[in-house]
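Quick start: load a record and inspect it. Here is Zinc-specific metallo-regulatory protein:
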Amino acid sequence: MNAARAWEILKDNGYKKTDKRELILGMFASTDKYLTARDLLSVLKKDFPGMSFDTIYRNLATFVELDILEETELNGERNFRMHCESDHHHHHFICRDCGNVKELSVCPMEMLGEKLPGYAVEAHKFEIYGKCPDCL
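Running the structure step on this input writes:
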């Protein structure tokens, strides 16, 4: 997703354009990596010295709720990145060192679905964590 599409979604849902939201979305639009609230705060504090984690998490929660951002947990901390706009089902390999993300087109549910007879799987999430070739 790009920032322009994110602003369309925010506007369609009654959210106003603010400098803080613009900086937050700009940071996500400029990278494919996952970012933490701490990453955002370190940059935003320069322009907004009174910026708090509450403000950042409130905006992040809104962006996740509207499917602008996707969320995962790495090393016990919530991490966020722009929502994929891929037109096919996929999962991700996430490098724990640099945060690079590689798309995986293989889905384990193809194998697991048959192991759950009588169950209705409504959703799933699958991520692989490790080190990318550059970080090895």
